[in-house]
Design a protein that fits this description.
two-stranded antiparallel ribbon, 9 strands, SDR_fam, alpha/beta
Length: about 280
């Protein structure tokens, strides 16, 4: 079980899967539900000894048991030392092959309206949690290499009114990822996945009538956790640093970043479209 020399072509990208001769472990933070659980499911199927970590230890243990993962552990990503404890739990089974920084918060609101505690939590979990996890993973990979996957967001690539602090933390994650890719050996693959809105409790927890929720939903249907997990796992073994999902929304977001005034003209239309999508999603 874990990462070895067997290669497979997947959508034009070479991916690596574990082999019995060279077992590897994997860590998925925030893995008790949503995107994290879907990623952990796929890594278990690929033969990794997966450690599911989550702030809710009971949920992490339950998820690990249900998936057949190696372990489920409590994990506060705001604590640098907690990452080392989780790493030790993984390497007790096999050398580290994959680390997924998935844990995150989605507090919405404009900068003027968002609660101060929510601002601090967004920075500490979404940015510092990724930084501490990335540092521990890079140290553990060493010269043997591996894959570090940071779950960012499409909001990282352009202005998202109503999600300004959240978007800023995700933009920082993308910047951290691209810089880290140049700081590490080529045997270590660093990735940032930037999905559009996903049908998870994080999005559902945003104000239903808020500007942020409407813009997140303006692309049409929300992505499923399975779609995001498939895209994340497909990055393993590749040199792809940043991937957007879907690709066309990534192009659009980058365009608005270059010309924010264009977004301001389109924002009312996008908000109306997103509001209609939220209402459709809420219907029984």
């Amino acid at each position: 079980m874990a990462l070895g020399a067997r290669h497979r072509l997947d959508r034009g990208m070479t991916t690596l899967t574990p082999s019995a001769s060279s077992p590897r472990s994997a860590v998925v933070t925030g893995g008790a539900g949503g995107i994290g659980r879907a990623i952990a499911t796929r890594l278990v199927a690929r033969g990794y000894a997966v450690v599911v970590s989550d702030i809710d230890e009971a949920a992490a243990r339950r998820t690990a048991q249900e998936l057949g993962a190696a372990a489920g552990v409590g994990h506060d990503v705001r604590d640098p030392e907690d990452h080392r404890r989780v790493l030790a739990a993984a390497t007790a089974h096999a050398p580290l092959g994959v680390w997924v920084n998935n844990a995150g918060l989605g507090h919405d609101g404009t900068l003027a309206s968002i609660d101060e505690g929510h601002v601090r939590a967004l920075v500490e979990v979404n940015l510092l949690g990724v930084a501490w996890g990335s540092r521990v993973a890079v140290e553990a990979f060493g010269s043997g290499g591996g894959d570090l996957i940071n779950i960012a967001s499409l909001s990282a690539l352009g202005p998202v009114p109503g999600l300004s602090v959240y978007a800023a933390t995700k933009a920082a994650v993308v910047s951290l990822t691209t810089s880290l890719d140049t700081e590490t050996p080529r045997s270590l693959h660093v990735h940032a996945l930037c999905p559009d809105g996903v049908d998870t409790p994080l999005v559902a927890g945003m104000a239903a009538d808020g500007q942020g929720r409407a813009l997140v939903s303006s692309g049409g249907r929300l992505l499923t956790t399975d779609e995001v997990a498939d895209a994340a796992v497909a990055l393993i073994g590749t040199r792809r640093v940043v991937r957007t999902l879907p690709a066309w929304r990534g192009v659009m977001m980058r365009a608005t970043d270059l010309a924010p005034s264009v977004l301001m003209r389109l924002e009312p239309l996008m908000r109306r479209q997103g509001t209609r999508a939220v209402r459709r999603h809420q219907r029984p």
